[in-house]
Amino acid sequence: MAEHTSSSITIEAPPADVMGVIADFERYPEWTGEVKEAEVLGTDEHGRAEKVRLVLDAGAIKDDHTLAYTWIGAYEVSWTLVKSQMLRAIDGSYALAPLGDGDRTEVTYRLTVDVKIPMLGMIKRKAEKVIIDRALAGLKKRVESVPKG
After folding, report:
1. What's the CA dihedral at 91, 39, 22, 74 to 10 degrees?
2. Hey, how many other C-beta atoms are within 10 angstroms of the C-beta on 81?
3. How does pLDDT run along the chain (149 residues), one tens digit per residue?
4. Strand, helix or coil for residue 148
5. Distance from C-alpha of 5 to C-alpha of 113, rounded to nearest angstrom
6. Nearest partner of 90 among 68, 71, 109, 114, judged by Cα
7. Under 8 Å CB-to-CB from 76, ≥6 apart: which residues?
């Protein structure tokens, strides 16, 4: 598979709070710039999304696609492409690591995108980096703005 792009950010919240926002797909259009629509198509026995349809507008990459999600313990989720209009593949993951006494979280986002149309590797990696950086910034802002209960 093609090389992946990754980036990390520290969020001032426990991992469970961060994962709660990551797992709440229907609210992605509220805090991600790229996701215009999100619909959970299927869930696992724990009520977590297994299949999600997303309408994406990330500048160079515009698509209506369905992803399959795999939940690895409480601190990691990965996804792969089920179907797409524009993408040949999209593989990604969020991995969370508690920091300090567990009230902060390091979030690492990895992403590999392969589009059906020819695109220079450099441009594709730049698009991946933009998607990752915007998603991490949006996630941080969303998690840290939620009132602590």
Report:
1. -80
2. 18
3. 456 789 999 999 999 999 999 999 999 999 988 899 999 999 999 999 999 999 988 776 688 999 999 999 999 999 999 999 888 888 999 999 999 998 999 999 999 888 776 666 666 677 777 778 888 898 999 999 976 65
4. coil
5. 9
6. 114
7. 93, 94, 95, 96
